[in-house]
Write a structure and sequence with these properties.
single chain, six-stranded mixed sheet, 7 helices, 24% strand
Length: 363
């Protein structure tokens, strides 16, 4: 299924007070060169057994568009009951090559192999290896996950369909079957403009599948406690992927520090990081392209910001992570999936009253 258009249901437009100055799209694609693509798989299966029901997909982030030259990168695990491939090499080298993809838990292997094949089909020499970064969250409540719907061609299509500009959110791509705080979750994105010895962009994209209903906080208000729980899915949500992009010139250890700050943005929305949750965060910088793309041996002259000046970037990550999660939440529409399992969309019409009770609504 092709991308759905970008929804008009976004957190900021609904009167949720959010800090910071977003970029033009308020999306990870506000970082120049970054492109995002989704493939969404919706298929009906057997109404009783659920066999064959598809509510899943693939999302691709291209740090430099079709240019596969390396970026500096870092990553962080808040809780490790999940998978993010390629991270051992990021720890070792600080480098990321090519696209970053997300999908469901049981499709990581085929998507990872597809990225290798795509990379070799698009300019990598035959003797050059790559260790792709592919992450997952579980969609087995709405999706017949053991039917293994995602194929190599779907991963190819997500990469080839990646574009700059607005990013579809909610039940699209890897986020199609995800649940967030007991409501329909999925993909969300946001960005911030920050000033640190120049003006830079920080953008995040989340695959939100985390939290219990009573934990949900919106702009500091305990909204989850005020909403009914009788129709919360019997399978609790768990896990979130957060991908951070920036054009600020940062080194690998600094990008790991950015990735850690996703934890603080996540905490603002209420979850405590459950034992069963895979909360995995990845950050990359699009700066220093010429230096990292240069061939041969010899010295490289890198541009980077000093550690002591990173606080505005940390703040941008925290703010954009929080907003991206809320964007995923409010974009989610009620979905019926595997064996008739239903997950309701967030009741956005109740936000003015709910936030107003705590003095947090912005008219």
């Amino acid at each position: 299924m092709p991308d759905s258009p970008m929804t008009s249901r976004r957190a900021r437009a609904l009167g949720i007070p959010l800090d910071g100055i977003p970029g033009p799209q308020n999306a990870i694609t506000d970082v120049s060169g970054v492109e995002v693509g989704h493939v969404t798989l919706i298929q009906e299966g057997d109404p009783r057994s659920g066999r064959g029901t598809a509510r899943t997909g693939v999302t691709a982030i291209l740090p430099r568009g079709r240019d596969s030259s390396a970026c500096f990168a870092g990553w962080f695990s808040l809780n490790g009951n999940g998978e993010l491939t390629g991270t051992a090499w990021i720890d070792e080298s600080g480098l990321l090559d090519g696209p970053v993809l997300s999908t469901n838990t049981y499709s990581v292997g085929i998507v990872r192999d597809a990225v290798v094949a795509w990379a070799h089909d698009h300019g990598l020499p035959g003797n050059r290896w790559t260790l792709p970064v592919v992450g997952e969250t579980w969609d087995g409540f709405l999706n017949d996950i053991t039917a293994f719907h995602v194929t190599r061609d779907h991963a190819f299509a997500a990469i080839d369909g990646a574009r700059p500009g607005p990013v579809p959110e909610g039940s699209v791509g890897g986020g199609t079957g995800m649940i967030c705080y007991g409501f329909k979750g999925g993909i969300g994105t946001a960005s911030r403009r920050v000033s640190v010895d120049g003006s830079w962009s920080v953008g995040t994209l989340v695959q939100a599948n985390q939290g219990s209903r009573e934990e949900l906080m919106v702009a500091g208000a305990p909204v989850g406690r005020e909403l009914p729980t009788e129709r919360v899915p019997s399978q609790p949500s768990s896990s979130i992927l957060v991908f951070v992009a920036t054009d600020a010139p940062l080194l690998p250890h600094q990008l790991k520090r950015l990735a850690r700050r996703c934890s603080l943005g996540l905490a603002r929305t209420g979850t405590t990081g459950h034992s069963s949750s895979g909360d995995l965060f990845h950050a990359f910088s699009t700066a220093n392209q010429a230096e990292l793309g240069a061939e041969g041996s010899g010295r490289r002259h890198l541009d980077f910001l000093p550690d002591d000046s990173l606080d505005p970037l940390f703040e941008g990550v925290v703010q954009s992570t929080e907003e991206a999660i809320l964007n995923a939440l409010v974009a989610g529409q009620t979905m019926v999936g595997n064996r008739g399992h239903t997950v309701e969309g967030f009741p956005t019409e109740r936000l003015p009253d709910l936030l107003g009770r705590f003095g947090r609504f912005r008219s």
